[in-house]
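Handoff note, outgoing to incoming analyst
You'll be picking up this chain. Sequence as last confirmed:
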Amino acid sequence: MSIEKFIYFVDIYYYMVYTEIQKRGKKKYFYLAHTINLDSKYKKIRVFLGVDLDKTKLEYLITKKKKLLETKIKLFEKLERETFEMNIDFSKNILSSKQIEKIVALKEKYKEKIKLTDKDVLKKVRESFLIKFTYNTNKAEGNTISLKETELILNKGIVPKSHSLREVYEIENTVKAYEYIETYKGELDHKFILMLHELVTKNTLENPKNEGKYRKKGQNVAMMGSKFYPPKGGRQIKQLIQEVIDKYNKSKLSLFEKTILFHSAFILVHPFIDGNGRVSRLIFNWMLIQNNLPPVDFPSEDHIEFTDLMEVSREGDSIPLTEFLFERLMNLYGH
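Most recent structure output, in case you need it:
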């Protein structure tokens, strides 16, 4: 691969950017690029435009993509200048003793119900939950496949033609990942987390090499609608996830409390280039299942409220988020 030439400069507000051509074999790949200088360090930010473009198509795509490049530039600058802080306390009680007693009672009730319920009925209940969970966890991330279409994919293998293969893979991958957490009896560790990510993102990422891998140096992300910025990609991602694992394992809080705190901290780190929400919700349910509690669905219609509560949790107050999920658990199984 070689950079053949720069074509011309385009002014985006105060950013001077240029069009770059990279020649790979007989094809020419066009990028809109900007070289950034922060404390004598140089970094090239690029947005892909297309392959073998003529002048008219190139000019159209530059106009269309320049805002995206500006956003990437601003994000990079902000990430470079900010220090990441983990502001989630795993030592402070966030449920009352009465609420914890209700969860303990629910655990015993659920365990007894499993024993007394016919296996065929349990199978149908599981299938119904899995369809809803799969639909909701993917819809929250922008998947447009409906609940009915999700059911047809999972139960009858009917693939809707009006949706992309990526969306279909996301549905199928969620089921495989859920089946994995149902049977996994090992430790909460990097191998488990990365395996979940690989299962969730199979055939859906632009670069398959990112499946089952933490974000590397230069792979920086933002959280939609959040004022918080995850840490920069690189070696520190694994270190931060290990820190969250250690806090979870050492915490003296109730299982439900520290499961919620882990979920919040995991999302704050945002260890993957994509799939963070889906993986975190699977880990959340694995923690419940491992401790004989029923799994929880995350309805897509509650996603905005849930995101707002996650934002408050990142600021150091996890009580509203915990109350929300406690009520969700009780409404599903506490009657």
